[in-house]
Amino acid sequence: MANSIAGINDDIISAGVLRGFTAGVAPLGAFATNFSSDAAKKGDKVSVLRDNTAIDAVQTKATHADYTIQDCDSDAVEVSLGQPKYVSWSLDDTEVANSSVLSLDTYGFRKGNALAVGVVQDIWSEITAANFGAAAFTGAASTFDEDDVIDIKDACDDANWGDEGRTLIVSNAYYNALLKSADLKDASAYGSPSVVQDGQLPMVGGFRVMRSNIIPGNSENLVGFAVDSSALAVAMRYLSPQEGNTYNRAERLTGEGDITIGLRDWYDNDSGVRKRLVECVYGYETGIATGIKRMVSA
Predict the structure, then answer these.
(1) What is the full DSSP assignment across 18-35?
(2) CA–CA separation, 71 vs 74, rounded Å?
(3) Tell me, what's the pLDDT at 8?
(4) What phi-psi label fits residue 205: left (phi over 0), alpha (psi between -120 and 50 degrees) or beta?
(5) Contact 46, 40 (CB under 8 A)
(6) How many other C-beta atoms can be found within 10 angstroms of the C-beta atom of residue 218?
(7) How much is the CA Rg of the chain, to the nearest whole Å?
(8) pLDDT of residue 53
(9) In this predicted structure, what is the pLDDT of residue 24?
(10) In 180-255, which residue ranges form alpha helices assigned H by DSSP?
(11) 207 to 153, 238, 242: CA distances (angstroms)
């Protein structure tokens, strides 16, 4: 019976970890991604497809001449899987016996979400002036409104972004500044959900607007960014342990969209402590330099 209960507890924590991680990396859906439950090794390369805005000019067919066919090899970015990030924890026999289902699930969610924050912030460290150019907006949250969103839209239009799939990711203060807009508060009159009741923004200036409290400043006062999916290429895989390991469990946890992390679990007989870690092996590369329009506070 004890082993059965321990197994149930393990599953509860694992499910919570996966939910927390999947929720935390949700903003990566705005980028070109290649997630898979397949196993891989650190240093492996993954090809991430992206739309290429550098389209060849329209050509004229000369009489009796061959067609000139555009090369589309550049529509894939090779991403190297880097050093894994992980979170870990241990519980002794007494702690496990005295834990409720709710506390175990909540604990797992927090651990998974902490791992997601570390991964996302590392990927977003790539969003700098050196990689993506001058900011499209500079100012405090108190000055930010829908007119500024339209100015960012103009910068995206000038960069020949497609109209579909535009996302604006901003820190809490800038998101809430838009919520205060009288015009957006009245959006419910046009069939949108109530901004006041739901605290959620409708589409603004052609952007799906997302709020994030983990945007890294990157030593440049970054507070948000508009993103085209081709701006960054991100890959994620399961890191499989070597043959001959003695883990109790060493397996992949796969959630929605093939988002995958690895679980390793072992028991220390001397201390009566169960040790676990979950890890993520991933990589990222700049895709198209015009694919992000940065927002900075100063």
Answers:
(1) HHHHHHHTGGGGGSEEEE
(2) 8
(3) 61
(4) left
(5) yes
(6) 18
(7) 23
(8) 45
(9) 95
(10) 182-185, 195-198
(11) 8, 33, 45
Cα(157)–Cα(226) distance, integer angstroms:
12
Residues 6+ apart with CB under 8 A from 295: 135, 136, 137, 138, 152, 170, 174, 222, 223, 224, 225, 226
* Tens-digit pLDDT profile for residues 96-126: 677 676 677 888 999 999 999 999 999 999 9
Residue type for position 216: P
Task: Encode pLDDT of 169-182 as tens digits.
Answer: 999 999 999 988 87
137-138 β-sheet, strand order: 137-138, 292-296, 222-227, 167-170, 208-211
Beta bridge partners of 211: 170
Q: Answer yes or no: are the C-beta atoms of 81 and 122 closer than 8 Å.
A: no
The structure tokens 């979400």 sit at 113
Q: Which amino acid type is present at position 234?
A: V
Q: Where are the beta strands (DSSP E) in the chain?
A: 32-40, 45-49, 76-80, 85-92, 137-138, 167-170, 208-211, 222-227, 232-239, 249-254, 260-268, 273-286, 292-296
What does the alpha-carbon distance between residue 8 and residue 14 come to, in Å, rounded to a whole number?
10
Tokens coding 209: 């607007």
Q: Tokens at residue 51, please?
A: 């739309």
198, 204 contact by CB (below 8 A): no
How are beta strands 208-211 and 249-254 bridged, if at all? unpaired
* pLDDT tens, residue by residue, 199-233: 788 889 999 999 999 999 999 999 999 999 889 99
Number of other residues whose CB lies within 10 A of the CB of residue 58: 5
Contact 227, 169 (CB under 8 A): yes
The 10 Å Cβ neighbour count of residue 68 is 10
Domains of the chain: residue spans and CATH = 1-49+71-298 (3.90.1690)
Q: CB burial class (10 A; 0-12, 13-18, 19+) of residue 283?
A: buried
Q: Give the Cα separation of 140 and 108 in Å (integer).
A: 36
